[in-house]
Amino acid sequence: MLELKVNNETSQLKTVVLGIADSFGGIPELVNCYDPKSKEHVLNGTFPEEPNIKIEINEFLNVLNKYDVKVFRPENINNLNQIFTRDIAFVIDDKLILSNILSDRKEELKAIDHLLSFIAPEKIISLSDSARIEGGDVILYNDYVFIGYSEESDFNDFTVARTNKEGVIQIQKKFPNKKVKSFELVKSDTVAKNNSLHLDCCFQPIGKNKAIIYEGGFKNIADIQYLNKLFGANNLIKINQDEMYEMNSNIFSISENVIVSEKNFIRLNQALINHGFLVEEIAFSEISKMEGLLRCSTMPLIRI
Hints:
Elements: E1 13-18, H1 36-44, H2 50-66, E2 70-72, E3 89-92, E4 95-98, H3 113-116, E5 124-126, E6 138-141, E7 144-149, H4 152-157, H5 165-174, E8 179-184, E9 203-206, E10 210-213, H6 221-231, E11 236-238, H7 241-245, E12 252-253, E13 258-262, H8 266-274, E14 278-282, H9 285-288, E15 298-303
């Protein structure tokens, strides 16, 4: 059996689920795009092709293997995009929470049935139908659980609003020992540069007490002030709107010292090096065209 353990985003990674690009369905119809960046690349004729995505996923896999990480993969379902495993489930402490995701994506959950058989049933949590949440909106910081969400007005208006208030409430009830802090995010179904699809698209802790942040992704100034106070302004690497659009905050920590990042994030990667991190730079720019990157492609199961 798998003994799940994830308390933060940066402890030494031991076991993870990495997405796959096999038979990912090719270029979708515009009506089947669920985020503005994917729509943009479909319209421009620049949507990624399967061979290029496979190369990028395999490069990520090679880095994980380099650090002796145990890697599980979803079972392949033909003509289904199964790259972004973060969305479908996530671990808090020693429990796996099954996300209530977009109905059009629920088939992705079947691809991890084999994994669930290795987890004790009492460690698997399903939320009620009224609670909507995706793993990209849930970020762990030891005693804290940060959750990006949308109030009812935005949640009903925007396809890119993936987590609602009820999702936040139910996580708080399931984990009463945690300090659950929710942040309302800026949403746009039409302009990718104005859209924070998930919390990890505008914020992510790194190391022991640092974080990457795009302040423009938060609706409320009080939330920005809260994070500046919690981490300290000198411990925040602030990115701009263009860097957010390129998914600079969606890097992935293998440990407190090692970060996997996209090789074209020149300014960010240098800032990470200046802060003392070892940066494993890989190509992941094709996958970023679907408004997801390294964190989105992973579902950590065990960090020690």
